[in-house]
Amino acid sequence: MAELVLQTTYAELLQQVEAQAFADAFPEPGGFIAKTVKGRRYWYFQTGRGKDRMQRYVGPESPELLDRIHKHRLARDDARGRQTLVSTLVRSFAMPRALPQTGAAVAALARAGVFRLRGVLVGTVAFQTYPAMLGRRLAASALQTGDIDIAQFKEISVAVGEKIPPLLDVLRAVDPSFRAIPHPSERRKSVSYAAQNGLRVDVLTPNRGADSDAPQRLPALQSDAQPLRFLDFLIHQPVRAVLLHEDGVLVNVPAPERFAIHKLIVSRRRGGGSAKAGKDIRQAEALLEALATGRRYELADAWNEAIARGKAWRQLLIEGASGIAPVPRDALLKTIRWTRALLDGLDLGFPNPRPRYDFDRQAVVFTGVDPGGEMLCAISTDAMRDHFRGLTPGEALARFREHPSLFQALARGKYRAAPIEEPGIVLLRSEEIPQLMAATRP
To answer: Is the distance from CB of 324 to CB of 281 less than 8 angstroms?
Structure first.
């Protein structure tokens, strides 16, 4: 019930923030017109006549956009109501609120039109929007605020035909201490901006050609941007979200399933020992568990799309998935219907199994360890009774202690080859024992 109330509250906030952001973006008298470009319709807001006529970009046509256009003049400013919804999400459901300086900067970017012109908020600040969106708390360690990262496709930046004020001017209106940081290879260009309080804003764009560090100009944002590999997958088909700051800030963020898969990839590109790689893994783990429950079809589709991009993508994804904790890894594997044998280097060891009888599970349980961490292994009471003369809990434990290597081999066999049933657990059932016994014989 609490999860349903959380999701309903967030949906109401998102609807109100969308309506107000749309009204704020086009407050003056005017009208909406459509243009068809390469077979797709795009909408613009037109004001004035003759020489004074101006057109501002609204967005590509969609049912949601047509509905917002229809309701444009019905919008009413109700900041207090939105603040109440934000407060409810933060206080009653422990959803993460943006730090004041971070929220203020993102709000300024939103008012300037960054997200209307199809910029996308990425990185940890975007990750902070997912708990409310998914209706679940995510690990606090994965939510720690980092830099503000804004991304945009270069071709979109050119095509929208509109631009915001210079990005540095937008940021200085919030904090005059913001300064442009010269790019290491081209000192007269900047892709990053920093304030005295340590807040940093980075501008990014996908790199689809040969690897290059050369800054690329994003005319819509009036800033240069750092090209990055794999970013095109992340920001393709972004979704609307609310950053919990004051009365809510409407932003575009990557679809959460794309965010999780992208983190698996970049964790390998950074190298396993870096602090950023560790944060990438924690964020991927937190999202994968939530997505495997609430958005499993979307997660499977995003995984299959990434895998289809070629051998390099496949290898990075396999390496990334192999390095995360057992429960989120198994949740992913169950969703995409892979066995653990398809990942590199996964095997189950038993440095100190310590068998015990679990009356709740009605099984002898023992601990295995794989590269991601501990795995709970269990053999059911029925299996012990039917195949190993373990008629009582005491006898079942005795049979295990007499032949621990046998039960460990059975668990290892199912761990590798069988479909995932419950993330983080290997349960040996009676009907599986004959086939597993046959597979373990030399």
So the answer is: yes
pLDDT tens column, 168-189: 999 999 999 999 999 988 888 9
pLDDT of residue 19: 86
HEC letters along the chain:
CHHHHHHHHHHHHHHHHHHHHHHHHCCCCCEEEEEEECCEEEEEEEECCHHHCEEEEEEECCHHHHHHHHCHHHCCCCHHHHHHHHHHHHHCCCCCCCCHHHHHHHHHHHHHCCCCCCCEEECHHHHCCHHHHHCCCCCHHHHCCCCEEEECCHHHHHHCCCCCCCHHHHHHCCCCCCEEEECCCCCCCEEEEECCCCCEEEEEEECCCCCCCCCEEEHHHCEEEEEECCHHHHHCCCEEEEECCCCCEEEEECCHHHHHHHHHHHHHHHCCCCHHHHHHHHHHHHHHHHHHHHCHHHHHHHHHHHHCCCHHHHHHHHHHHHCCCHHHHHHHHHHHCCCHHHCCCCCCECCCCCCEEECCCCEEEEEEEECCEEEEEEEEHHHHHHHHCCCCHHHHHHHHHHCHHHHHHHHHHHHHHCCCCCCCEEEECHHHHHHHHHHHCC
Contact predicate 339/418, CB 8 Å: yes
- pLDDT for 319-349, tens place per residue? 999 989 999 999 999 999 999 999 988 899 9
What does the alpha-carbon distance between residue 313 and residue 298 come to, in Å, rounded to a whole number?
19
> pTM higher than 0.90, yes or no?
no
Residue 28 has a pLDDT of: 65
CB 201 within 8 A of CB 147: yes
Classify residue 388 as exposed, middle or buried by CB count within 10 Å of its CB (0-12, 13-18, 19+).
Answer: buried
Rounded to an integer, the average pLDDT of 292-300 is 93
Buried b (16+ CB within 10 A) or exposed e, 365-374: bbebbbbbee
The rounded distance, in Å, linking the Cα atoms of 170 and 186 is 23
Q: How would you classify the pairing of strands 200-206 and 148-151?
A: parallel
CA 397, CA 92: separation in Å to the nearest integer?
A: 46
What's the full length of the chain, in residues? 442
Per residue in 423-436, pLDDT (tens digit) is 999 999 999 999 99
